[in-house]
Amino acid sequence: MSGRLASFKGPSTPLSPESSPGKIRPNNRGTAAGNKGGANSTPPSSPGRELESTFHRKTRALLLEIRSICRLWSDIVLHDGLKAAKTLVDARTELEWVFESAFCNRSPVRLTVFFAESSNALAVLPPGENPTCRIVGPKLRIMDKQVRDLDGVLTKLKDLLGRLNSAVDKMELVLFEAHRAKGWLWVEEEPLWTSWSLHKFVTTIPQIARAYHRSYHMHLGIVETLRPHSVSFETSRQEINRWVAQPHLEETGWDAEWEDLCQVEVDRWQV
Predict the structure, then answer these.
(1) pLDDT single digits (tens) 83-107
(2) 70/73 Cα distance (integer angstroms)
(3) How far apart are the first and last CA of the chain?
(4) pTM score, whole prediction
(5) How many beta carbons lie within 10 A of that of residue 215, not counting itself?
(6) Can you give the residue ranges of every domain in the chain?
(7) If 0-12 CB within 10 Å is exposed, 13-18 middle and 19+ buried, where does residue 18 land?
(8) 233, containing H or E segment
(9) CA 175 to CA 65: how far, in whole Å?
(10) 47 pLDDT exceeds 90?
(11) Which residues contact 119 (CB under 8 A, 6 or more apart)?
């Protein structure tokens, strides 16, 4: 879809975040934030506020949809995903402690180690002795369930990424429709509400899709690292910290800059 923008002036997509000179900022944010007497920094209304076109309404609706997708992403990562990852690591830590207690410290605990519904079977027991309790099997079932839950989280994130890309494509369609109806000067130079033109919105918003795409692949790699039960506790701890930090969204995620920008640049923004 973005390739079609090449028929107009300017690039079809913005520079990558790595090559951008800095964060996205609305042109008049300082003016809006500098009201005397500490008044609320409400964005100034455009002259034709009551005469918004369908292009204004579609753009605002799509920006709100993108915000909803990004916030749902954060909820899934920091609630469902984090819970599954921590439960997985906790179960492995408890299992490791059991082994250390039973065999390193010569505890009287007798273990049977088995994989339920698995092709692998492992017995760890001194020769000639029978187990008196089963501990490892239940822990393994918990661990396997958390791995499945993490796979489910990845599926949800992939679906959200598809919805995000679709919303970005729809923004480009709004640009094409506006170009046909109002001409290129209106699309590229006329402020849609405050200072940003429709063209600037449409050519800047793909940055956020790229950031979430990179974040998805980071989460995919983390799950693959956590998947084997042999992974060390230290490695697991580092991967969980990365999961929570979401470094690809620190500067270009929705809450990092777009929410503040839309409060200034978009009339009737729903906070």
Answers:
(1) 999 999 998 888 777 666 655 544 4
(2) 5
(3) 30
(4) 0.72
(5) 20
(6) 67-109+143-265
(7) exposed
(8) helix 233-245
(9) 17
(10) no
(11) none
